[in-house]
Specification:
There is one protein chain. With about 325 residues, the chain is mainly alpha-helical. Strands 1-2 form a two-stranded antiparallel ribbon. It is built from 14 helices and four strands. The protein folds into two domains: about 140 residues, Peroxidase, domain 1; about 140 residues, Peroxidase, domain 2, CATH 1.10.420.10. It binds protoporphyrin IX containing FE and 2-acetamido-2-deoxy-beta-D-glucopyranose (NAG) (2 copies). The site of protoporphyrin IX containing FE (HEM) has 26 residues, from helix 3, helix 8 and strand 3.
């Protein structure tokens, strides 16, 4: 008798925790999530971003890229911020796609510290990244959107997961489309978000194969404007044999308006001045060339799509409700 009662209780508590889990995963992000529990959260992030970006416009690029790199690997859970721990496999942050090129960590840490002083244990690092990317988008491009929030922070970050989820710069349009499709994002969203490459920089190592070692028949990538290639060669000397390329020198991704988040990127592609293979391929592939031309002609339309796609990207595989945690320090799990 006692036995069956125990079973009944166990079954009941099992069902109860299942329904808790189900409701936790059904919680969705919402605009104004911190309005009651930490009303100044979004203002604090905006101030921190504005201060830094006014001094160093490139930081806006860094923060927008950080959001992409967070959301595509394990969802938008701030896994990109976790430091590698001794005795564990390296974290995302130390993958070559992030280290040393990903920037803006200290902006997130500063905003987090100011928020913790006011509302401890309330605002996730994942939401701070999302707010900072929005504020950067506004500062660099005058493009504004509301950010649905309520993300929670993950406790796991694994370097090996980066390459399975983030596209490398040598991918062609078909491969890029596949990478985004695996996240439930459309080809048009991929082309639209690539417009983020209208700001910021790339290291020579990300494209010098296009200048010196393209393939067996062409040293230089024939899809690259020869004058632009000649300029790039002055910035990026040939890497010594066996080396992966210059990891310190950078070149603007958009030569014309490098600090302005705008649709000039797409006109540059038309003139064969896309810096990365993954940029130029969007113009050269039948899958995407019409989208490039359309975005190049319609700046306001592109900006609206960019805002929508940023919001969509921010919803990928998020932790909500009672999942994950609110990290106290963004670089370490609690
Ligand atoms: C479509 C596939 C993409 C590929 C293959 C790609 C690849 C890259 C690479 C290789 C760099 C230069 C890294 C370096 O050498 O320092 C870069 C920079 C950048 N990416 Fe992407 N990216 C892609 C999509 C995106 C998306 C979706 C966003 C955000 C919406 C984004 C935002 C940026 C920004 C802003 C920079 C400049 C960063 C800085 O100046 O610190 N990228 N990307
Ligand atoms: C894109 O890359 C894949 C994998 O390398 C290749 O199979 C495909 O043919 C390429 N597509 C185009 C259009 O070049
Ligand atoms: C090298 O690239 C060019 C231009 O994309 C292409 O036409 C050619 O077939 C490629 N050669 C080899 C050997 O892959």
């Amino acid at each position: 008798m006692a036995g069956s009662k125990l079973h009944f209780l166990e079954l009941f508590s099992f069902m109860f925790s299942c329904s808790l889990l189900a409701s936790a995963s059904a919680v969705s992000l919402k605009v104004g999530f911190y309005a009651e529990i930490c009303p100044s959260a979004e203002t604090i992030v905006r101030k921190a971003v504005n201060e830094v970006v006014s001094r160093n416009p490139g930081m806006a690029a860094g923060l927008i890229r950080m959001y992409f790199h967070d959301c595509f690997v394990r969802g938008c859970d701030a896994s990109v911020l976790l430091s590698s721990l001794p005795g564990n496999p390296p974290a995302e942050r130390d993958h070559p796609a992030n280290n040393p090129s990903l920037r803006g960590f200290e902006v997130i840490d500063e905003a987090k510290a100011r928020i913790e002083a006011l509302c401890p244990g309330t605002v996730s690092c994942a939401d701070i990244i999302a707010f900072a990317a929005r504020d950067s988008t506004y500062k660099a491009g005058g493009i504004y959107y509301a950010v649905p929030a309520g993300r929670r922070d993950g406790r796991v970050s694994i370097s090996d997961e980066v390459l399975q989820n983030l596209p490398p710069p040598f991918f062609n349009a078909t491969q890029l489309a596949q990478t985004f499709a695996r996240k439930g994002m459309s080809v048009d969203e991929m082309v639209t978000l690539s417009g983020a490459h209208s700001i910021g920089v790339a290291h020579c190592s990300s494209f010098s194969n296009r200048l010196y070692s393209f393939n067996a028949t062409h040293a230089q990538d024939p899809s690259l404007d020869p004058n632009y290639a000649a300029f790039l060669k002055t910035r990026c000397p040939p890497p010594p044999p066996g080396a992966g390329g210059d990891l310190t020198t950078t070149v603007p991704l958009d030569a014309i308006t490098p600090n302005q988040l705008d649709n000039k990127y797409y006109s540059e592609l038309r003139h064969r001045r896309g810096l990365l293979t993954s940029d130029q391929t969007l113009m050269d592939s039948g899958l995407t060339s019409r989208m490039v031309l359309h975005n190049g002609r319609n700046g306001a339309g592109w900006a609206r799509k960019f805002a929508r796609a940023m919001v969509h990207m921010g919803s990928l595989d998020v932790l909500t409700g009672t999942q994950g945690e609110i990290r106290r320090i963004c670089s370490v799990p609690n």
